[in-house]
Amino acid sequence: MSKTTLALVNLRGYTIIIVLAFHSCIAYIVSQPRSALPFDSPPYGWLANPIVDADRWLGFDLFCATQFIYMMQLMFFLSGLFVWSSLKRKGAGGFLYDRILRLGLPFVVGVYLVMPLAYYPVYRVTATNTSWPEFWSHWMALPFWPARHAGESLAALSAKAAAHPLRFFLVLAGISAVAYVPLASIYPPWQWVRFGPIHFQPTLAPQYVIYFFAGAVLGTYRLDQGLLGADGMPMRRWGRWLAGAFAAFLLWIIPTALSVKGQGEPLPGLHFVADLGLVLYAPCACLGLAAIFMRFASVPRPMLDGLSGNAYGIYLFHYVFVLWTQYLLLGVAMPGIVKGVIVFSVTLVLSWATTVLACRTSIGNRVVGGRRAEPAVVRHA
User: Fold this and answer.
1) Parts of the chain with a pLDDT under 50
2) Number of domains present in the structure of the chain
3) How far apart are CA 223 and CA 87, in angstroms?
4) Are 310 and 359 in contact (CB under 8 A)?
5) What is the DSSP string of 210-231?
6) Is residue 165 one of the residues assigned to a domain?
7) Is the pTM higher than 0.70?
């Protein structure tokens, strides 16, 4: 395994830790609503703030803000990096079959089993009758239920990205801005909308597609010789990417905070400045983190390797443990920072353990683990 691949495996393990930590801390941010939001009433604000705890810590607000505007983009970017190699290895038919099995079946299980189980404690917070049958009736009453030449072209784009990394960054940021700015004039980045059982953030959803495609483009070229290679410019200039991410974050957070508090409305162009900061921060953070891991974490890290290998299952199961642990801690008097650490620790251990147990079954290993059963070795006497 090349140094670049090792670094990206470690980065994927780090990313799933960040996702779990982000969701674990949301209940304890100061900017949460004052009280739990009603389960049956539009606009169903509990989708964004499932558990509202009175014990809070301002540090979690800063942590969640720094992760919110790049975290999912990074996940889709990393997913896209390995698409082309998987497609070439499995062929179009095998790749499509694997995607349907690996994404379709967990989606059905998630919608009809994992998510109801996860959101049950959210219902219990405000319900008078907290029985499971009563919850199920309320849950179902919610209005959520109604090729080869291409590869050569993408490889050429990847080679150009390696030769001109700044141009790649500007193109990625520019495409992101074109997709984001018009939508941001209608929806704030934290607003969720629903389409049947699917909930998404309209301003950020196109960004995930863009970053997935960007990762797929880079993945068509040899990773260790392309933009993310050990000799690539991002790795040699990792400090600049980090400084750029910090500057872009300030460009987003300051006007956003002023606008949320109502102090920035008279200032023309303030929202555009915030939008600019967001679309610059995400590519800086993605490339900067990739560079940092290539520079300092391009050797095997057993824990990160284990998290990376089980990342899909951990992501699939983690929200159940996040919300139930937050719910069980509602009546416990302790600082918000302590609760956040407890929720993260419990979620990490239990979602990881659940994934490992699921992978011990043939269907779980195939769907959650994404691994085919190894053929038996026949020993001849």
Assistant:
1) 146, 373-381
2) 1
3) 15
4) yes
5) HHHHHHHHHHTS-TTTSTTSTT
6) yes
7) no
